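Notes from hallway chat w/ T.B., transcribed later so I don't forget. T.B. wanted the structure written out for a chain they're using in a teaching module, and asked if we could keep both sequence and structure tokens in one place. Agreed to drop them here.
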Amino acid sequence: MVIENVISDSIKFFHMDALSSVVPMRINVDTQLTVMESVLYRLLGVRVGSEYECAEADTIFRDLVRLSGTITISEDNILVKLRLRA
């Protein structure tokens, strides 16, 4: 069931069914990028906290990536302030 959810997530969020070319090499690149995107979203969810460990990529994108905020970089730290949501 977990594998089926990952495949469903890839098709729904990463548009795996809308590959950019019929050339086999291009399809391999698109598929590899889709796998990498999925893994990166999964890593982000794990690092953020327990409520996002099993979240789908579109949920992580909506809740964490698509937010506006400010980033302040200094010598010894990086401060990220996200806009509060209702």
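Follow-up for T.B.: The mean pLDDT is 76. Might be a good example for the class.
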